[in-house]
Amino acid sequence: PSLTQTNVSTNVKRVIQIKTIANPHSIPLPLPSPGLMSSDVDDEESDLHCYWYYFNEANQWKPFSPSLTKQLSDSYLNNPKGSLIISQGAYSYNIDFHNMSQTNLKTNTVRVIRVDKDKLETAMGRLAITSGENVLLFGLGENMQLAKHKFTHFIKSKCLTKQVDIRGVPKTVMIPTIVKLKTSHPHVKVEIKDKAEDSYVIKLDGFAKHVNFLDSRLKDVYIKCLEENKEDQGTKVAIPKNWEKHTANEMIRVVPVVNGSVEWTQVAAEFNRTSNRPIQSIDRVQNKWLWRKYQQTKDSFKEIEQNENEMTVFHGTGGTDPNLIIRGPEGFDFRHSREGMWGRANYFALNASFSESYQYTQPQTNLKMMLQVKLMAGNVAHLPPNSSLTMPPVLPSSIKQHFLGQKYDTVSGDHPAGSKVYMVHT
Fold this sequence. Notes:
The protein is an alpha+beta fold. The protein has helices at about 45, 65-80, 115-125, 145-160, 170-185, 210-230, 260-270, 290-305, 325, 350-355, and strands at about 5, 15, 50-55, 60-65, 85-90, 90-95, 100-105, 110-115, 125-130, 135-140, 160-165, 190-195, 200-205, 250-255, 285, 310-315, 340, 345, 345-350, 360, 370, 370-375, 380, 410-415, 420-425.
């Protein structure tokens, strides 16, 4: 017997049916379409096509577009437990690789996603690290050139060249430190470009992780010498009174904030101003190196009588572990930022609810993490979206200037997702 729906006022009848929702994992993935793999698709993207799928309302696996598939593949290979924000038309989606799901950030509709790992690995070429210097690529012959290109690009993207200026460190301390670092990290090229009395310009070249570590060690030596130099107490920067005392040579400490304390109440109030999500924990980041850099910038602003325009903002790190920021020597590093609506910059939001879309998920606990940040915005240029923006505009003559061609310090804008945002392009 058929199922019907009857309008009790008009007696109009309609036939209805029960739709069965299938288990996505019981439905096999479709075979690649020859049309999608034809020569009208860019060569670099065609080999990645049809490896990522979403499960639609018709109980079918549908492939992502070539450009989105490339984004998904690159992000997944970089962090299989991370997440990614993508845009398609008027909608933005959060891709959760850990749970293999896609969430529409406007409608909150959740779909199951899937990757065909065998096809992905075949297209990318299989990588086997045989030693510290030798890399073996093997896979299908027609894909090896692409695999070599992508691996070379990957290696270059992980490398970093950095120049470190060290002043006021005695030769008896600096030279042994450099020798020790060169010995312990032979794959990083350490070069003294310029050397004067107790002053050094040191060039570091190698994998970013190791370069940043050596940079941090050199700066630790520098800070230690400053702190031990009792004849120049004026160089010391006051540490916030609510910080716990650091042990000797301890640069970074992360301290849990007590629930119900004045500090907890202040942080929670700013967060709850736009978000109703429960707070599990709050940690205070005590990074002495970053705090000194921040205070030095503040002192520079005071020197030229410029308004600091200090504010509290929020930042979600997406698939990047926040510890790479809070425990690093650079803090928010512009070189690792991505292009957004106002160009490539570090983005900060006035509303915590906005940064929730970019929060980091801890793989072990599935807890969400985001950062509350002090931002010294200085002179702010409020601009409409412009994805080609590379730096703030030049200050108008109506604003006091001290340098030729002086620019705004920060760019702000009204994001359509519902928050004022601030962009730092350096």
